[in-house]
Design brief:
Two copies of one chain form a homodimer. The first copy, chain A, has 511 residues and is mainly β. Chain A has two domains: 4-30 and 442-508, Copper Amine Oxidase, Chain A, domain 1, CATH 3.30.457.10; 34-323, Acetamidase/Formamidase-like domains (Jelly Rolls). Helix content of chain A is 13%, strand content 36%. Chain A has a nine-stranded mixed β-sheet. In chain A, strands 4, 5, 9, 17, 18, 20 and 21 form a seven-stranded mixed β-sheet that branches. A five-stranded antiparallel β-sheet of chain A has the order 28-29-30-31-32. In chain A, a hairpin with a 4-residue loop joins strand 30 (462-467) and strand 31 (472-475). Chains A and B meet through strand 12, strand 13, strand 16, helix 5 and helix 6 of A and strand 12, strand 13, strand 16, helix 5 and helix 6 of B. Chains A, B: This is Acetamidase. Chains A, B: Residues 1-23 form the signal peptide. Chains A, B: InterPro entries: Cu_amine_oxidase-like_N, FmdA_AmdA, Mao_N_sf. Chains A, B: Keywords: Signal.
Chain lengths: 511, 511
Amino acid sequence: MRNVGVTLSLFLGANSLSVVMYANTTNDAYKPKTHVLKANSETVRWGNIGKGDPALTVHSGDIVTVEAITHHSGDDYERMIKGDAGVEDIFHWIEGEKNEALRGPGVHIMTGPIAVEGAEPGDVLEVKILDMKLRPNGNDQYAGKTYGVNAAANWGYLYGDMVEEPKKREVVTIYEMDTEGGTDYATAVYNYKWSAQTDPDGQVHPTIDYPGVIVDHNTIDKNFDVLKGVKIPVRLHFGTMGVAPKEADVVDSVPPSYNGGNVDDWRITEGATMYYPVSVAGALLSIGDPHAGQGDSEINGTAIETSVTGDIQVILHKKASLNNKLKGLNFPLLENENEWVVHGFSYANYLEELGASAQTDIFKNSSIDKAMKDAAHKTKDFLMAGMELSEDEAYSLMSVSADFGITQVVDGNWGVHALIDKGQFGDSERKPVVLRSSFENFGAKVGWQPATKTVTLSYNGNVLEMKVGATTGIYNGETVKLAAPISVVNGKIVVSEYFVNFYKAKLAKTE
Amino acid sequence: MRNVGVTLSLFLGANSLSVVMYANTTNDAYKPKTHVLKANSETVRWGNIGKGDPALTVHSGDIVTVEAITHHSGDDYERMIKGDAGVEDIFHWIEGEKNEALRGPGVHIMTGPIAVEGAEPGDVLEVKILDMKLRPNGNDQYAGKTYGVNAAANWGYLYGDMVEEPKKREVVTIYEMDTEGGTDYATAVYNYKWSAQTDPDGQVHPTIDYPGVIVDHNTIDKNFDVLKGVKIPVRLHFGTMGVAPKEADVVDSVPPSYNGGNVDDWRITEGATMYYPVSVAGALLSIGDPHAGQGDSEINGTAIETSVTGDIQVILHKKASLNNKLKGLNFPLLENENEWVVHGFSYANYLEELGASAQTDIFKNSSIDKAMKDAAHKTKDFLMAGMELSEDEAYSLMSVSADFGITQVVDGNWGVHALIDKGQFGDSERKPVVLRSSFENFGAKVGWQPATKTVTLSYNGNVLEMKVGATTGIYNGETVKLAAPISVVNGKIVVSEYFVNFYKAKLAKTE
């Protein structure tokens, strides 16, 4: 197949729009392989995102349906473990028998690692998040619901700095999400103050210091009068996703770094694309710590911690062919339809900067001020290299339009992110392409119903319906939020190149 | 007039919606007075937001059309001063003759102060921003445009920390906005490196250290190859607005504090409401430092600094009648249709905390970490008092849904803000009311065209047209962004109480 890019200019009154049309000489199909990576005690590692034997090996372009399980499931065994074979397997721990006995220094249950054929240090790994779905709980008693945990934990930002007594308290709030009605909010069910828990080996845990301990509900007081009438918008995302760093073998899953990991940005959600610098052979991608809702800062130590199944596409960019945005990439970069997001940390590469004791020292050196300095430099560098701006142009632009936010203040290596609006760069960052030819190009069927102004994309047994101007579409019978509404320009449906690449991958998934 | 509030429940399938309908026994009119406060050398103070003789005195409920002028106008005399009588008057400075000779320690041109009749310490002053318009420049040569300045200044976050030489450079970028075509973006025109400027009194300014100096364009090199093709979204806002603090007489306009001032949050825009704690008799509201665009952090030291004319409504809330959100308010609080925004600073009240040398010491103690701590406590306190949550509920909710951002890192007393989504609280924070009765209640005429689903609100010679579902409306013939689209619920147009109060004031303005 040969793609021939032709740039047309469509004149619309005073506005002109450059549109790249792809003509293809043959309609050979786009057929990435779809893998399924279920979570169980064989396919997850607990607390470690370092090097290790792959749970799965894929080729660039492949799609993986990956199960991610929350490490907080033990806070309500009945609602979050019971009846779910995978979760039961991971959490299985009786005296003298513990499936996940091998622990890293961190807390998260990480599915993987996934090795990517041919990935080498200096390459960049792109991960598109094609789909995220709450994992229904396995207990018939709570059918149709998914539960999540928010723990105001000892590593929270205001721990000990409270008004009410005891100031040093940990409080677990259980949240509920509807997995059948398609509601997009979470409500609190009850909360309880953490009391000392004894694990199956007889060790007592006076604080939340070891995930996997099943809380004995006979030892706690449940308070059901919590956040009545409050409906928290669901923002499904992976709290922790990243490749293995080269600097250490076993790596704590808690502090994020240049390789990604526990970035805890709620924008790492369906429709987003992450780019990670590869520093070990195979890249070794780990995925975990799913969240149903989190604010920028994750102030009390956790989000709504829940279990999620995602579809991701993994694309390897070789060092020699990196574009200006990815060349020399030294941080986890996020892209979505509307934004680039730069992630800075107190230490850009804490394992290297803090040396042999980095994995303990990082928790003594947390600072938003340092993270802001890192984010500021990375943002300027990104605008200069990626958008080909002079230093003065980049610095002015970030002051007048980039929004800096506090990603998290609870993961040791604290985070500040910068949001860069793609729209301000016009066609250069949101390249308009004609929908029909773009999708037909890789073999999809494109239908159009003029009466309802609805486009139907069919490929590989998958069907996506989108109505002009609508913010949601229908994907295989289910309502989904669209990356962007589609619009008509001069008689043609025009979308962004990002949009095409995203839905191309989504449609390519096989069951 | 007596208002009788009746709460109805409208049942819509599984959902119910409580709607407060106002019945009024007489249609006596709502007639706040409209004042005009032009900016000239008599009505502005330069660099000081402290106590002082009022430029205007108003009653609670009054509307003020207030002109605000940027202190950066001297960076391009031809585009930003020439031909504008008010600006020329303020900037008039020849040897031995300087209209604004009396300067505070700060930099901003502040219009006011506006005294509010009956305002006393302990009260809260509400300021609704009803309208903001770019001030067209006065030079025929540049008709139909407004210009703005972004200065990468010596107080910028990366000053001296640059890649290119000289690292310690200040660069001024001139931006252009269209005031006729209604475009909502800014484009860069040219930039130049600041060179030493000599003021009319013979003093040399090697850096940007004294606003009001007219830059001699014979001494600079203009570079017109700047940010080509980049269109920056316009976010008109007042960078500096607030009441006089009680702790000092002359107060630097640069560091924001509990009384507001240079908060530099771009959300302080049309449609927003600010609440300030009053600490001196008359409140003494000052307004200035208008911006056409700024990112969260204002990283290089300035925004797109331009001149703007706004309509504000000033409402006094007496101490004895404050609701739970305003009782004990100790920071500038923002509300809009969708959010509450809490503002924290490195020092919540720097004048009190840092003592006699506060106005110099604050610049040595800037810290985002401190500002985050302040914002975290204020947000928890606000949720507890304002939403009647327990401490555990508030702390959990902020972790799972409040977004903390970096307001600015360039104003001495650095800022962190928290965005609290009103929608999550349902009707309690976004109280639905029936549009027709709410507007008829104060004497407005409400029209409805079924064919086009358009509501027309007429009052006082002002007309607002809104189509169901549309994000923009027509106000007196001009397209305006609506606070929210209107929607039909059970055959009635239902909007929020906030919406009604906002448009009620907007319609009440007289010419």
